Amino acid sequence: MRLRTQRRSSARSSGPFRSPWTHVAQAAAALAAGMGVGRFVYTPILPLMHTQAGLSSAAGANLATANYVGYLVGALMGIAMPALVRSPAVLRGSLIVLTGSLVAMPATHSVTVWIVLRLLAGLTSALIFVVAVSSVLSHLRDHPAHLPGWAFGGVGAGIALSGLLVLVLRSVADWRAAWWASAGLAAVFAAVSWNLRPEGTPASHAGSTTGPARPSPRRWFTALFAAYTLEGIGYIVAGTFLVAAIEQSSPGWAGSGAWVLVGLAAVPSSALWARLGRRWSRPDLLCAALVIQAVGIALPALIGGVTAALISALLFGATFLGVSTIALAAGTHLQFPRSVALLTAGYSVGQILGPLVVTPLLHHGYHQALILAALVVLAAACAAAVLRIGFPHHMAVVRSTVPGRRSASAETTAVRTDRP
Q1: What would the 3-class secondary structure string for 141-173 be?
Q2: pLDDT, tens digit, 9 for 90 and up, residues 14-35
Q3: Percent helix, strand, coil in the chain (nearest 5)?
Q4: Would you give the distance in Å from CA 95 to the centre of its chain?
Q5: Confidence at 37, pLDDT banded by 50, 70, 90
Q6: SS3 for 101?
Q7: Which residues have CB under 8 Å from 168's CB, separation 6+?
Q8: Closest Cα partner for 220 from 417, 397, 390?
Q9: What is the DSSP string of 210-276?
Q10: Contact between 380 and 231 (Cβ < 8 Å)
């Protein structure tokens, strides 16, 4: 109770009081626009573009690759220019450009223009993701861990709502209407997130540390980086081909319905994984989430039918955001410089490699690709298991010696542990 009082008094003294749920809602809306709609709506629209817009399979793969390359460029920009992560103008500009790229998709039949538009969508979605996640992990660090989890759930909400839009429109309209409706949905989310506060400028700290000397986070971050990059490879194969794989052996509605279920399962998943962090460490949770996800990816390849498809969608949706939440929170806990941008960059490299690795297998359908993706995710779980060895569950806090900074009693409230 005393710590809560200190946190509230500290927050009020530093500026006007804001409910943390307001920040959660704004960050969730930003992630819903940038990731749930801007990034993932392409998956359910792609079959419509194949049948109605004459898009070939090779061109469809090129559009997906362009989006992944743009995402990597945006993540690298966040590493090279950290000021971007703290800029409201960057967030708002990215939301506008992203929405505009969705509006422009139905205005042409040029594959070249589509590639440019998906490249822009990937770049801006990465910037939105890095800004929103850095903001959440910065401003909500002294709040219960399930709050950032609900913010991550915005990705799932965007996937579910945009997937539902496409599912409804596919029977009454064409591919153009699907893009325009998605742009309208992104605009609504952008308006809600317009006043999101980015991460604040880091304070300059000088002086001594409290407690024991802080361990070097490099070896743990290396294992974390490897696990998250491998996850990018395996998860994107399922994220790209899961709907098509399900529709190969199930009724036409099953693929789109499964994608909506992925989004619905993703909404509460990050918050639930964060609550589990009260009893288990982040490395343990990361291993568990990756193993469960591998099972979900392999299921449609091993067992056919609608039931297996829906269980696969449920397991995949319940874990892919949870993995991101746990990994990014672990990087922040390790206090590794620019951890969010670095991990996002590794993740995006994995997303580029994933479709390239499985392309030779697609001549025989999607089953072999899904099995390979599941094996890669299991390899990510092995890397996460290495992270468990000697993981620093408690990190030392750097105190400022500059007069007028936080008091010692307030400083103790900032101690981060691996069990929130």
Answers
A1: CCCCCHHHHHHHHHHHHHHHHHHHHHHHHCCCC
A2: 445 468 888 888 999 999 999 9
A3: 75, 0, 20
A4: 16
A5: very high
A6: helix
A7: none
A8: 390
A9: SSSPPPP-HHHHHHHHHHHHHHHHHHHHHHHHHHHHHHHHS-HHHHHHHHHHHHHHHHHHHHHHHHH
A10: yes
DSSP per position, 281-340: -HHHHHHHHHHHHHHHHHHHHHS-SHHHHHHHHHHHHHHHHHHHHHHHHHHHHTT-TTHH
Distance of CA 249 to the CA centre of its chain: 29
Minimal CA–CA distance to 71: which of 30, 112, 104, 118? 118
Indicate the pTM of the whole model. 0.77
Mean pLDDT, the chain, as a whole number? Answer: 81
Place of tokens 């297998």: 361
Kindly report the backbone phi and psi dihedral angles of residue 394, in degrees, each rounded to the nearest multiple of 5, phi listed first: -120, 130
pLDDT at 387 over 90: no
* Distance in angstroms (rounded) separating the CA atoms of residues 351 and 21: 31
Phi-psi sector, 214: left (phi>0), alpha (psi -120 to 50), beta: beta
What is the per-residue pLDDT for 134? 83
Cβ atoms of residues 150 and 67 within 8 Å: no
Question: Are residues 71 and 348 in contact, defined by beta-carbon separation less than 8 angstroms?
Answer: yes
201-205, 328-332, 367-371: lowest mean pLDDT where? Answer: 201-205
CA distance 225 to 330: 10
In DSSP notation, 397-415 reads -BPP-STTS--HHHHGGG-
Contact 355, 64 (CB under 8 A): yes
Task: Provide CB contacts within 8 A for 296, sequence distance 6+.
Answer: 238, 311, 312, 313, 314, 315, 316, 318, 319
366-370 — which CB contacts under 8 Å span 24+ positions?
366/241, 366/244, 366/245, 366/248, 366/300, 366/301, 367/245, 367/300, 367/301, 368/301, 369/237, 369/241, 369/245, 370/237, 370/238, 370/241, 370/242, 370/245, 370/297, 370/298, 370/300, 370/301
406-to-10, 28, 234, 413, 414 alpha-carbon distances in Å: 9, 30, 44, 11, 10
Q: Which two tokens stand for residue 116?
A: 């440019």
Structure tokens at 301: 């390849």
pLDDT at 18: 65
- Inter-CA distances, 382 with 40, 114, 145, Å: 28, 38, 25
pLDDT mean over 200-222: 56
7-16, 143-152, 341-350 — which is least confidently predicted? 7-16
Terminal Cα-to-Cα distance of the chain (whole angstroms) = 16
**How far is CA 219 from each of CA 34, 225, 382, 383, rounded to the nearest angstrom?**
32, 10, 15, 12
